[in-house]
């Protein structure tokens, strides 16, 4: 029985250590997942906080500066809230009209969101479009 | 075609319900006729599901766009192999595949030779049929594979280019095989409990099932990582995305289970623990599916929002409550029959610690994954923890796991004395210290990689010395020379040495992960033709940008000359592929891979004056991860197949019933 007790103590130590680790890491590394609505309405409230949000891409708004390697674009939700995003990095794949874009980063005074990470939502849900040779030409040029 | 398809599904639902009831009636009445009828039902169900799946494959292959599923995920110009693999591109098809595998496994168990005359069979079949009913219910009501379009489109949407990759052909199916495979040990465990059998029969009987399921889970995870690495072009292989976590959690708990059952087999301990682990693992497969299909979490994967997730959650709830109820009602029997630990310093206890760490790891992943949901419930905002959280938490946990992995083979069963410990540990420990010093001399100064690599070295040394001691002992008895002794030793103890081989594989994977997580460098640059990019020891010259066609696809590619330390190493051609009916191009990573590092280049954009933007990464040691994966597969297969150990049919000593 004494041996079992010893085991129990050993196990509890591992368990407690994990919990401590978890709590420590949770408070340190947290960001908030917000809707566009929440961000647009009260941008000041979330300043300095690491934010994750998502919205539909407005293709026309995409601007790409090759020399600065800077991408900027706008995303919107179904209520018409629009957020401008600036990202020091390149376009992810599948970056086209109406694709859901997930961005992670910070919101600033001027309402512009600087994204550290830009992702498009994965394949499984997408629907394709008709083949359009002209479109290819356009993209290729 | 549509009518037949729909009919097979309704029929499947009916037969699964019928067989489920037939087994229960047979057990209650103790009437073999009913049980046999149930078994025939199981076989019929399997044939029927096969027919359904063949039908769906047929309409996919022949591009019958009147079916929604076909027009959603394929187009007529798609290569046939991707038309077929669209079977698991969407909800309906993938759940049909799941059902197919489930009925296949149920048939294999119900008609198994080893289980002939065993009273557990009707119970196991009933439990697995309970699963089948659930899946058929969903196929008949929510995600109907044979749903028709309102009007027939002339062309389908096509498969997303990202999915047009060999990864698509094998990665999903391996994961499903792993997920479904866990239903078998779960059903065995619950059946044993219902019959009040508290011995290890169910564990011995399902050892290979569980190993196979574990192998597929491992493969699924690794292939997913490999695919992401090559296809997505962000330079990583693991992102702690909810969907990845969903398949990683059961992997962790099943790994724990595979180890702790050894203690039960040998010592009759940890019975409740093992049962809990298998219930947990099984529940996690359903929970993972819930996460993926419900859209409650923000993930780059996700199958879209249907109420499918809710169904999975409810089903998981029912299954877990039922399993827990059965277990608690047999708790006194399990407790009475369990042994205790004989020594603090024994193999048993080191296994238990390994188990605890694995379960803690699973819990940590679980916590990080569902934290957004918890925080939303408690505080109203979804708080995400992100990659840093997982890295902070998982690094120490996985490192301590490596440590346990290193000392485990050297600790004897029951009780280790200080003396034999010293004997076993001395040489590996000395060698490990030398490695640590070498790492330091090589210029590694950060703490995690030093600890990590050192632990991996320690683990490799202890395993090698353990094998060496085995060889020496055998050779001194049989007088065989060392190589022959080694071969015979290994082939006579497939379980043990298969397991050690898996450990070697894990060591290689660990080397790759530690290397790539700590030492990768990235550079993004826009350059004109003739200009150079310098990164780490590489000098990359952008030579040309050109276009070519492959079938309906147009490909833009850049030619880059690569020099390392002034020496020419080759050319890299990163591409963007414009798929026929897809407006946006897909990335095709260009890479030169060596044992030392991967030079990983993505062409991300180009301008009218042919300037192009490249993302260049040097990822050290990534190749070790994939190599380690291969070693893990070899080790597992070695432990599963052949050898006398695997032929032994465990003796059934449990409750006897009239119906089997």
UniProtKB/TrEMBL annotation, chain A:
The keyword Heme applies. It is found in: Membrane. GO terms for cellular component: plasma membrane. It holds the Pfam family CcmE. One of its GO terms (molecular function) is heme binding. It comes from the Bacteria. Keywords: Cytochrome c-type biogenesis, Heme, Iron, Membrane, Metal-binding. GO terms for biological process: cytochrome complex assembly; protein-heme linkage. SUPFAM superfamilies: Heme chaperone CcmE (SSF82093). Gene3D superfamilies: Nucleic acid-binding proteins. InterPro entries: CcmE, CcmE-like_sf, NA-bd_OB-fold. This is Cytochrome c maturation protein CcmE.
TrEMBL record, chain B:
Keywords: Cell inner membrane, Cell membrane, Cytochrome c-type biogenesis, Lyase, Membrane, Transmembrane, Transmembrane helix. One of its GO terms (biological process) is cytochrome complex assembly. Residues 313-640 form the Cytochrome c-type biogenesis protein CcmF C-terminal domain. It is a multi-pass membrane protein. The chain crosses the membrane at residues 6-28, 40-60, 80-108, 120-139, 169-195, 207-228, 248-263, 275-296, 308-328, 349-374, 394-413, 425-444, 450-468, 497-515, 624-643. It comes from the Bacteria. It is found in: Cell inner membrane. Residues 88-294 form the Cytochrome c assembly protein domain. GO terms for cellular component: plasma membrane. Required for the biogenesis of c-type cytochromes. Possible subunit of a heme lyase. Belongs to the CcmF/CycK/Ccl1/NrfE/CcsA family. This is Heme lyase CcmF/NrfE family subunit. It comes from Chengkuizengella marina.
């Amino acid at each position: 029985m004494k041996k079992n007790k010893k085991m129990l103590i050993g196990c509890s130590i591992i368990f407690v250590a994990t919990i401590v680790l978890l709590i420590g890491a949770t408070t340190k590394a947290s960001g908030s997942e917000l809707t566009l609505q929440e961000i647009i309405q009260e941008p000041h409230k979330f300043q300095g906080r690491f934010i994750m949000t998502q919205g539909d891409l407005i293709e026309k708004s995409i601007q790409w500066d090759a020399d600065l390697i800077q991408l900027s674009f706008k995303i919107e939700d179904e209520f018409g809230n629009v957020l401008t995003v600036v990202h020091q990095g390149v376009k992810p794949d599948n970056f086209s009209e109406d694709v859901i874009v997930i961005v992670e980063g910070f919101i600033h005074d001027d309402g512009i969101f600087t994204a550290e990470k830009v992702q498009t939502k994965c394949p499984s849900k997408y629907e394709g479009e008709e083949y359009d040779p002209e479109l290819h030409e356009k993209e290729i040029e | 075609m549509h009518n037949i398809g729909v009919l097979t599904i309704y029929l499947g639902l009916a037969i699964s319900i019928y067989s489920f009831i037939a087994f229960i009636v047979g057990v209650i009445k103790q009437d073999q006729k009913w049980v046999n009828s149930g078994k025939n039902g199981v076989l019929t169900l399997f044939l029927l599901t096969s027919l359904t799946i063949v039908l769906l494959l047929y309409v996919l292959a022949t591009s019958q766009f009147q079916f929604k599923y076909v027009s959603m995920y394929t187009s007529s110009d798609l290569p046939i192999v991707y038309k077929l693999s669209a079977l698991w591109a969407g909800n309906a098809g993938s759940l049909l595949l799941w059902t197919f595998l489930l009925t296949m496994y149920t048939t294999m168990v119900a008609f198994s030779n080893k289980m002939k005359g065993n009273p557990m069979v009707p119970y196991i079949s009933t439990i697995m049929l309970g699963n089948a009913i659930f899946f058929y219910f969903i196929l008949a009501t929510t995600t109907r594979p044979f749903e028709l379009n309102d009007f027939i489109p002339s062309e389908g949407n096509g498969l997303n280019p990202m999915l047009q990759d060999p990864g698509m052909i094998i990665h999903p199916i391996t994961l499903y095989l792993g997920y479904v495979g866990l239903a078998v040990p779960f059903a065995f465990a619950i059946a044993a409990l219902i019959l009040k059998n508290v011995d290890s029969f169910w564990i011995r009987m399902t050892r290979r099932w569980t190993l196979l399921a574990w192998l597929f889970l491992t493969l699924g995870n690794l292939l997913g990582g490999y695919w992401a690495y090559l296809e997505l072009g962000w330079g990583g292989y693991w992102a702690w995305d909810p969907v990845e976590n969903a398949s990683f959690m059961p992997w962790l708990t099943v790994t724990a289970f595979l180890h702790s059952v050894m203690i039960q087999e040998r010592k009759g301990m940890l019975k409740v623990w093992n049962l809990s682990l298998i219930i947990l693992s099984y529940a996690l497969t359903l929970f993972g599916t819930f996460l993926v299909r419900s859209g409650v979490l923000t993930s780059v994967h996700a199958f879209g929002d249907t109420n499918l997730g809710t169904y999975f959650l409810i089903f998981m709830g029912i299954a877990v409550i039922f399993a827990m109820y059965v277990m608690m009602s047999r708790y006194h029997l399990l407790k009475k029959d369990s042994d205790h630990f004989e020594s603090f310093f024994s193999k048993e206890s080191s296994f238990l610690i390994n188990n605890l760490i694995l379960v803690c790891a699973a819990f940590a992943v679980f916590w990080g994954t569902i934290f957004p949901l918890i925080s939303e419930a408690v505080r109203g905002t979804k708080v995400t923890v992100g990659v840093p959280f997982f890295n902070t938490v998982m690094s120490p946990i996985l490192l301590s796991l490596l440590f346990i992995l290193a000392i485990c083979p050297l600790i004897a069963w029951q009780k280790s004395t200080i003396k034999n410990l010293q004997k076993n540990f001395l040489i590996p420990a000395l060698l490990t210290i030398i490695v640590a010093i070498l790492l330091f001399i090589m210029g590694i100064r950060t703490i995690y990689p030093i600890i990590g690599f050192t632990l991996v070295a320690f683990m490799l040394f202890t395993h090698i010395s353990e094998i060496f001691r085995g060889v020496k002992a055998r050779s001194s008895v049989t007088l065989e020379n060392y190589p022959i002794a080694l071969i015979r030793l290994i082939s006579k103890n497939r379980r043990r040495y298969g397991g050690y081989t898996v450990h070697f594989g894990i060591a290689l994977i660990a080397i790759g992960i530690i290397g790539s997580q700590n030492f990768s460098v990235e550079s993004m640059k826009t350059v004109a033709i003739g200009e150079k990019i310098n990164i780490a020891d590489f000098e990359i010259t952008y030579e040309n940008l050109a276009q070519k066609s492959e079938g309906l696809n147009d490909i833009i590619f850049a030619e880059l000359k690569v020099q390392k330390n002034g020496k020419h190493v080759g050319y890299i051609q990163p591409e963007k592929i414009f798929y026929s009916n897809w407006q946006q191009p897909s990335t095709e990573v260009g890479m030169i891979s060596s044992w030392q590092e991967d030079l990983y280049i993505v062409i991300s954009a180009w301008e009218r004056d042919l300037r192009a933007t490249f993302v260049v990464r040097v990822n050290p040691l990534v190749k070790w991860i994939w190599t380690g994966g291969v070693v893990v597969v070899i080790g597992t297969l070695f432990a599963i197949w052949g050898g006398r150990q695997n032929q032994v049919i465990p003796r059934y000593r449990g409750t006897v019933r009239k119906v089997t």
